[in-house]
Specification:
The chain is built from no helices and ten strands. The chain has a six-stranded mixed β-sheet with strand order 2-10-9-4-5-6, with no helix packed on it. Strands 1-3-8-7 form a four-stranded antiparallel β-sheet, with no helix packed on it. It is mainly β.
Length: 113
């Protein structure tokens, strides 16, 4: 059974930084495409980052490029999302996803002064 568990969310001031973690079980993150998505209250889920299995190529939408960085630690079987220069519009529940996994519970990120 594939399971992804997100953590690391919280309340941060505008301009601040936060790092999210996604611990995987049932799959090896180094061999699987992994992504981060977010869903703000009342809005559709939005893609924010991808890292490909194997080569580890990363991709981001314009809304977060240059501020967010996705990475993985194969030894810990964990995927990270480093977020800097956070803005109030980054407030959302953040989810980790692999094509082989169902959606998890996510982790709440709130950017507010």
């Amino acid at each position: 059974q594939v399971q992804l568990v997100e953590s690391g969310g919280g309340l941060v001031q505008p301009g601040g930084s936060l790092t999210l973690s996604c611990v995987a079980s049932g799959i090896e993150v180094r061999y699987n495409d992994m992504g981060w998505y977010r869903q703000a209250l009342g809005q559709q889920r939005e893609w924010v980052a991808t890292i490909t299995g194997g080569g580890g190529t990363t991709a981001y939408p314009d809304s977060v490029r240059g501020r967010f960085t996705i990475s993985r630690d194969s030894a810990k079987n964990t995927v990270f999302l480093q977020m800097k220069d956070l803005k109030p519009e980054d407030t959302a529940v953040y989810y980790c996803k692999s094509p082989r996994a169902s959606w998890g519970r996510g982790t709440q990120v709130t950017v507010s002064s």
